[in-house]
Queue: 3 jobs
Job 1
Amino acid sequence: MQPFTRVQGIAAPLDRPNVDTDQIIPKQFLKRIERSGYGPFLFYDWRYQGDGETENPDFELNQEPWRHAPILLAGRNFGCGSSREHAAWALEDYGVRAVIAPSFSDIFRSNALKIGLLPVALPEEVVTRWLDVAREEPGMEATVDLVEGYVEFNGERRAIELDDDARERLAGGLDDIALSLRHADVIAGYEAQRPGRLPTTAGLRG
């Protein structure tokens, strides 16, 4: 996955609590087998009017300068609902690198960290204040610095609370497969001495 060290860019306000995963990526778009290609369907029911093609001009991410902003300011309990990984995939594919909110669904948070999308939980009064500023001064940028461990907006800096394991994964661009491949020599050694009579998923041997 793409390493996350520091992102600076426009912060888009999405001042809605309890944004669930079906709102992030509706169920009819979950038929793809790839992890990519979900960006066009992000917030589909909010972004488009009834015909599914005409943009809703009132939706924040359809407005400049918030269209394709890399940082999203959101309400509490972001990513609640079903456990679909596609919600995090859609945000990442759309171009969002970090979501700042008072709280997140545990499953969404876990899914996001696994693909390089950083969820930053801050006190609700801080996020509320930042949402107000983002609306009043469209185009204001935020900085999310994982190396130094802070997020900054409107001259206010707050610490990013993240465990060391998640921080290492994000900074190194290490998904689950990459973490496994760190032990490639050990895995190869085990496979070399493993009896051939045991089951395998490697396919038929000639």
Job 2
Amino acid sequence: MGKQSINVLAIDEAGRGPVIGSLFIAGVIIDESKAEKFSSDGVRDSKKMSPEKRDFFFSKIKEEAVKVYCVEVTASEIDYKRKKISLNELEAEKMARVIEQALEEGIRFDKLILDVPDPTGKQFVDRIKRYVDLPEGLEIIAEHGADDTYPACSVASVIAKVNRDRSVRRIEEEFGLDLNSGYPHESKVIDYMKRVIREKGEYPDFVRESWATAERIRGEVVQRKIGDY
């Protein structure tokens, strides 16, 4: 009798830090041996891969995985939820939703691997348990940098990152912009945000208004206008 495959549900995010665009939470259920094969073929934490390599493996992962989930959390939802809960809590809520979907669909997974933002894995798993009942005896790995340590989590990071990048490209095409990756330290992003506040007085809904960068730029532009009188 052959060795039974071990299915892993690995979950990672992309787009936590940017001031532009959505956050994506990806969950991938995949045979552990297939995830290891992807690792030997060059899949890493998606931040360490070129866009071309990520795109290449994106379709391969979708073909080989048992199931792929991807949850989009828009800038507007992030702003709204952060009035009540932390970003870490929001991530836990969305990751729990991925787990819940897999359980509702009855798809077997023997191990759960989470890339976590909290100081300890236990702290984050406790958050998740507020939103979903985890199966008894489920092996759970919850670590900082899991996407760089566990092949299945690297696979999930590719799904999240490609979806995130494609969503930013769609914003650029629709509005005729060049936003790089949408991070607050990028000069093109800062220049755009200053321009849109000066010209329109408000940000479009793809800007995370609750970010300190967005609040600071709005304040600077308002003060400058007051100084003009």
Job 3
Amino acid sequence: MTEDWVESQRHQEHRAIRQRIHLALLHMTLLAVIWAVLATFVYSMEQGRTLQAVDHQLYQLSQTLSFSKPLVVPPDDNLQPTDVHLLVWSPTDTIVLYYQPFPVQELAALRHSVITHQSTHPVYYSMTVVGIPYRVRQWTISGHRPVQLFDGIQDDQSRLARLLVLFVWGGVIGLVLSLVGGFLMGLWTLQPIFAARRREQVFLSTVAHELRTPLAAMSARVELLLQNVDDPIGLHLPWIETVYSETQRMTRLVNDLLDVGRLEEGKSALSLEPVSLRDLCETVDAIYRPVLEEAGLYLERSIPVDALVMADALRLRQLLLIFLDNAKKHTKSGGIDLAVVVRGTHVELHVKDTGDGMPSPAKTRTKMKGAPESTGLGLVIARKIVQAHGATLAFISTVNVGTDVIVTFRGLPLDPP
């Protein structure tokens, strides 16, 4: 492991943490905006409803007032005596009638409010007198005398203040929880990205490994040729053949890479048509049976019932050849079975060998979705072919017994005979 690679891994980890933090902050910001809007709406609605209720109470009280001397304010169970004040002003800015008057030092402010609101009758407004909040109803009676009816709203203001504090603390707690939750959720949200990045790293490592071997062989042979340029070319024919074979190998590798790129497009990269799996297996049998027989292995077909699938015939043949080649590499004796099994509306294509099998943590029969790790691109291409067809891939393997590769398609109805 080189220092550059370690530094690259550290940089990617820091970048992943920054991504999670940014996602958490974005989540917190969105939640803060939503909470602020909702809290403002609810607070404004509650404040408006409270003031509307007080205004209605002031209106009802104003309808029962008698402006004779002495001034009479009828009792009301909903109002405390100290909460209600009433001032009747003369056109010359003097108080002619009153109920529970305010201190003299407050009269200038009270008169100013009268003048300010004289243009509208009646009018409701809020003001603070002697440090106590009041709701005021102002109107004019006979003789152009302005009247101010006060109702203390300190309790209502206290209740609204508690509601506001509740909203603030609820928002703060919610933001803290959203920050923590967003950071944790970022790990879950970014998992597919991290998984794709890990697959990309494995893929690039695989490609680099596959390219390194032919390039090293070609470089060594070319270097030997350059050191012996005066020799007849026939003397170094084996070196030239090595360069040629490695060139062919690199060509196949590049073609495999192009296949992977094309298969990333999914179904759009396929030429779909109804394909008979029995005909497909017969074609692959004719191609690969001589290869297995030369290695002392058998190839058998078990297709009691034919099945049709919507697929790309060339890609399915490539898929089977990849699985057969992989099975041959891991099978020292015995052979390989090709089988087709119909299960309801689905069709299973099996490639079962008698090879080494794949070890599992429990050393028992195991079933895995996807594909095992491989040093080549064959299984990478196979997985892409399966995904492009919308099929599923499973491996059932037992150590020293063999591996059963299962590709499951959605079947098509057979044409009536």
